[in-house]
Structures are given as C-alpha cells and as structure tokens.
Write a structure and sequence with these properties.
The complex is a heterodimer of chains A (247) and B (101). Chain A has 247 residues and is mainly alpha-helical. Chain A contains 14 helices and no strands. Chain B is built from 5 helices and 2 strands, in the order H-H-H-E-E-H-H. In chain B, strands 1-2 form a two-stranded antiparallel sheet. Classes of the chains: A mainly alpha (247), B mainly alpha (101). Chain A: Belongs to the AzlC family.
Chain lengths: 247, 101
C-alpha cells in the first residue's frame, strides 16, 4: 500500500490502532452470522441456501429480511423485493467510499462485495486514505470469514435443536431488525435533543411504516405489507417538505 | 422458487454495491435521493419488526414474541452487543412460552 497525498497529516493514525479497531468490529459482527444461520434454518431454509446467502448476498439486513419473509409465507418475489429495498443503502456507502479509497478498476469488483454498514463505518472513521484502505480491508476480511463460518454453525446448530418456535428462535429476526434499526437511526442523525420531524424524520417514518404494515396484514398477500410500508419513507418526506414550504 | 429469490437478491445486492463504487457522485448525491436512501431501510425494518412480532398468518396477535422483543429493547438500552440483543429476545420468548404453555 503506497502513501497517498492525504497521509501528509501530522497525526497519522498508527497502523496497529487501525487494525485493532477493524478487527474489533469485524470479529464482533462476524459472530452474528450465528444468529442469521439459526434464524434462516428456523424459517425453513436448507443449510446450502443459508450458506449461499451469506456468501453471495453478504449484507445482514437483506438476508434476515429474505428468510424471515419466506418463513412467514411470503411469495419469493415479494420477499426478494423487501430484501433489495434494504440493500439499496449500500450504494450510498459505495459512493462515499469510492472517493475515500480511490480503488483501481480491477480491484473495484472485488471490494464491492464488502461495501456494507460495518466496513463503511470503519473506513469512513479513518483520518487518511491509507488508514481507510487498511481499515476497510481488515474489517472486510474478518467480517466475511466470521459471518460465513458462524452462519454454517448456526444453520447446523438450529437443525439439531428441532422445532424453532419451541425455543423462541422466531423472535431472533425481529430482535436483529430492532438492533439494526437503532444503529441506523443513530448513525444518520445527530443524537441528543429532540428536533423537528423535518430535521429528524427517522422515528416518525418507522412508526408510520410499522402501522401501515400491521394495517395491511389482514387484507393483502404475505410479503406485500413490507412493500406498502416502504411508502412511508417518500410519504414522510413529501409531507415534511410541504409543511416546510408553508412555514 | 426459493433459489430464484436467492439469486435475485444476491445479484441485486451485489449490483447495488458495485453501482455505488462506480457511478459519478453527481448521480446519487441529490438531497432527496440521499434522504430516501436513509429512510427506506428504516421504514422496511420497522415494518418487518411489527409484522414478525405481531403477525400470525394474516391476523394480529400479542404473544411471547412481544415479550422477547421487549427483552431485546432492554438489552439495546443497556448498549449490549448485537448477539446479546438477539439472544435476549430468544431466551425471553422461550421462557414466556415455557411458563405460559
């Protein structure tokens, strides 16, 4: 790795500190593949399907969304749409990382698979390009290995446990989503004092979406309530914009 | 059909990641698109939480899963790591089922 123009900063972060931060995130989150493996097997996916999802999709929220929707009886296409909605945010991480990492066209297709919440968070937190590249790579490697190994262990373990609902494993999906939701809402806005909805639309959007989904559940086919609920996002933006224009 | 859904999600999610790394910034760096990209996953996650906690087929119920989600909420308030949050939900749900079932 060559020094980039941005490494001229006087307070360059030591490589060991970058590696330590990256490994901490990569290993901690990598272990969570176990929860995915258990949930996926509990939703009725085969071990092969579960492992292929972690190897090829490799973005946790989308994986959980797909398997739990299929487990709940959603049509595979509707389940896939919900998963893709969740994956769309990675494009914006990629956008920010492409400037920061300045990858060559040859490396880009390989690096793309690792463009997820955690690698972006670590890379974007670094003070210069060399540290960002190192952080991205170490987080990517450790998380990819950990996530896939623990996915397999979780899937095999769940098969040994038998009936998933008897163990409460069906609660793992919503709990995982809640943890992701909280970290996303924390990451996108400044925390602390309450602000107007226009500046901080996340809680209102979440509440409207949840209400919409529950209201639709009895009347539309499985898998569709999530797609209807996604409309809460443009709806909240439009409403807050209009209000903003009048004030 | 499940394999087809897996293939669609795998190809779609990879394409989205590669798109972000490859397109010029001006295409995606519009305030409205950025805000939508932030809010759509939040809306989707909130809907999934509600459906998987209170949905039973096509009807709404309050059962042990709600207690499990509350357990996860407490773990989150205590700033517990991801795996602990998920484990809390599973353990509380199983415990409520064992006590009431």
């Amino acid at each position: 790795m060559t020094a980039s123009p941005t490494t001229t900063a006087l307070h360059a972060k030591p490589r060991a500190a970058v590696v330590r931060d990256a490994l901490g995130v990569g290993i901690a989150v990598g272990l969570s593949g176990f929860a995915f493996g258990v949930t996926s097997a509990g939703a009725g996916m085969s071990t092969a399907q579960t492992c292929v999802l972690s190897l090829l999709v490799f973005t946790g929220a989308s994986q959980f969304a797909l398997v739990t929707a299929i487990g709940a009886g959603a049509a595979p296409f509707a389940a896939a749409m919900g998963a893709l909605f969740l994956g769309a945010r990675n494009a914006f991480y990629g956008l920010r990382l492409s400037h920061l990492l300045d990858l060559s066209p040859k490396v880009r297709p390989l690096a793309a698979q690792w463009v997820i919440d955690e690698t972006s968070a670590v890379a974007l937190a670094q003070p210069d390009r060399a540290a960002a590249r190192l952080g991205f790579t170490i987080t990517g490697v450790s998380l990819y290995l950990g996530w896939n190994i623990t996915t397999l262990l979780g899937a095999l373990g769940a098969a040994a446990l038998g009936d998933p609902s008897a163990w409460g494993i069906d609660a793992a999906g919503p709990a995982a989503f809640l943890a992701l939701l909280v970290s996303m809402a924390r990451g996108t806005g400044s925390s602390g004092s309450w602000r107007r909805v226009r500046e901080r639309p996340e809680p209102v959007t979440a509440a409207v979406a949840a209400a919409l989904a529950l209201a639709c559940l009895p009347v539309v086919p499985a898998g569709v309530p999530v797609l209807v609920a996604a409309l809460a996002a443009p709806a909240v933006l439009i409403v807050t914009r209009r209000r903003g224009d009048h004030s | 059909m499940i394999w087809a859904a897996i293939a669609v999600v795998a190809v779609g999610c990879y394409a989205v990641k590669l798109l972000g790394l490859s397109v010029p910034a001006s295409v995606l760096e519009r305030p409205l698109i950025r805000r939508l990209a932030t809010l759509v996953p939040i809306a989707t996650l909130a809907a999934l939480i509600a459906l998987q906690t209170f949905g039973e087929g096509r009807s709404l119920v309050v059962d042990a899963r709600a207690a499990g989600l509350a357990g996860a909420g407490v773990a989150l308030l205590l700033r517990a790591p991801f795996l602990v949050v998920v484990t809390a939900a599973v353990v509380v749900t199983a415990a409520v089922r064992a006590l009431t079932g």
